[in-house]
Amino acid sequence: MIRFGQTCAAIAARAGKLEKIAVLAEYFRSLDDADLRAAARFFTGNPFAARDDRSLGIGWRTIVAAAKSAWGFEEAQLGTNYREHGDLGAALGPFVRPAMDLALFSETLTPASLYSLFEEIAAARGKSAGRKREALCERILRACTDGTEATYVIKIMTGDLRIGLREGLVADAVAAAFNRDAHEVRRAVMAAGDIGAVAVAARENCLGDLRVAYGSPIGFMLATPMLYGSDYKDLCSGMWLAEEKFDGIRAQAHKVGDNVRLFSRTLNDVTPAYPEVAEALRTIPGDFMLDGEIVAKRGENVLPFRYLQARLQRKTIDPELLKEVPVSYFVFDILAKKEDFLIDEPLVERRERLAETIVSGKHLELATFTRLSEAPAPEELHELFDAARARGHEGIMLKRTDAPYHPGRRGKWWLKLKRELSTLDVVVVAVEWGHGKRAKVLSDYTFAVRGRNGELLTIGKAYSGLTDAEIAELTPWFLAHQRGNGGHAIAVEPKIVIEIAFDIIQPSDLHESGFSLRFPRIVRIRDDKPPEEIDTLDRVEQIYREMLTREGLQP
Ligand code: ATP
């Protein structure tokens, strides 16, 4: 792993994408199959392949404890390092102390051997699992020989290398290393859910042999907001269809044989929360991957999102709740059928395949759509919008008929027509103890949006909106996920996503983003949204400009 660490450092030091890809490609070329398989996975910032359900199950605390036993250091020095780097790997790396007695501790880490140790950590079960995980973690750290190696080994364990490489670029490096088409490699990564297997297949020139990996969720395609009453000029090129915009929770369904799994936006398995949907899908013949939205629906009435709240993140659902909050899965896309991976097909064709696959019934409905006229007039859209609203939906989605399915992307192929004032999805980065009856809970949240290079930039602080129960539930989570030493404002791991409503956005020096919000209030916790997908500074600026235009001021 020494060369892995050096490669990471070399990639981090280069600003250009092409340079990063070239460095990584050269490293990939130098590895044997076993190391290539593991290293390609590690470069996506994960110990395991995307389709692999396993996780290490070790947090910050275990890693620090293991590092302490391996290397011994002052807690205060760790705090100082952490404040300097803002990252556990970089903070701990400098403490590395290679074993004195080389005969006794001669273990050397390679990507493949580290992968095996990760497998052992993930497999630890039973009462002593925690101790076993810590011991294995210590063994890994003791095998590290220099600071760079240790830094990046820890970064894999914490799940983020922070060298400016997204999975797409790792796939491009695989393509560059073995002279393959970058699009073909990226597509294979999505189909197979394992960049490690794809890297080896790319070297052997057998990408076509990889099978669709049912059970490995792929990123969701997202829509760009379009303001109600705007000029709708995006709809002037191409042909479009309109669908209802459902007010529920997005879900990707994978069915293979009798096995059905549902995945949320965060790519977590949420099947246990919706057993009736899984059952309805089980009765449909064939293997397939679907995209759709689970909505609360009683009889013919579609219910607003808040009804679904009681069903979210349940590990088991009692029959009462099944009756109280009945749901229906509205399916609007198909991503794979049997061995055919369909994401490159145009939407209209996917819609045909979908109609051949799904029959509407209880708890499962084929979403309907309307084809729009060429360059549709605003009245045509508004009529559809009002009709959707009258049926209890949020509005309409507009989709270009020739659009492929772009996993994990928000583009101009899908547009969502919105009327409400915007809200922002942000991530909590620091928390403070409350006052009065909230003195014993962490109730004041400082939150951030994402900057142009993926960095987090604070934009405000909110005290209100959540219930006492929600705040009480989040407090222990924040305490367990602190970053640094604490103090008045406690920095926390940026994982909790919340939706913020506000009156206006204004430029301000108070926050890192250069903007602040007036009267921010928390609308809800967005457990369905990963922190990578929070709103960006560009979006904040866009809302600010729209606000000025609406008020008749020049942006
Ligand atoms: P986004 O998901 O785009 O970040 P958001 O979660 O804040 O935004 P909205 O802007 O209200 O939510 O709407 C977008 C969401 O609408 C999508 O994520 C998806 O879950 C949902 N959705 C509802 N109906 C559809 C549809 N017909 N096609 C695609 N997505 C839909």
Describe the overall structure.
This protein has 555 residues and is an alpha+beta fold. The chain folds into three domains: 157 residues, DNA ligase, ATP-dependent, N-terminal domain (DNA ligase i, domain 1, Orthogonal Bundle), CATH 1.10.3260; 195 residues, 2-Layer Sandwich (D-amino Acid Aminotransferase, Chain A, domain 1), CATH 3.30.470; 129 residues, OB fold (Dihydrolipoamide Acetyltransferase, E2P). The chain contains 18 helices and 20 strands. Strands 3, 4, 5, 6, 7, 8 and 9 form a seven-stranded mixed β-sheet that branches. Helix 1 packs across helix 9, helix 4 crosses helix 8 and helix 10 packs across helix 11. The site of adenosine-5'-triphosphate has 13 residues, from strand 1 and strand 2.
- Count the helices. How many? 18
CATH C-level label of the largest domain:
Alpha Beta
Based on the coordinates given, report the CATH architecture of the largest domain: 2-Layer Sandwich
Q: What small molecules does this complex bind?
A: adenosine-5'-triphosphate
Question: In terms of topology, how is this protein built?
Answer:
Elements: H1 2-13, H2 17-29, H3 33-43, H4 60-71, H5 75-85, H6 88-92, H7 111-123, H8 129-142, H9 147-158, H10 167-178, H11 182-192, H12 195-203, E1 222-227, E2 240-245, E3 249-256, E4 259-263, H13 275-282, E5 288-298, E6 301-302, H14 319-324, E7 327-337, E8 340-341, H15 347-357, E9 364-366, E10 369-371, H16 378-390, E11 395-400, E12 410-418, E13 424-433, E14 442-450, E15 456-462, H17 468-480, E16 490-491, E17 497-501, E18 505-507, E19 515-517, E20 521-525, H18 537-550
Parallel strand pairs: 1-12, 7-9
Antiparallel strand pairs: 2-10, 2-11, 3-4, 3-5, 5-6, 5-7, 7-8, 11-12, 13-14, 13-16, 13-17, 14-15, 17-20, 18-19
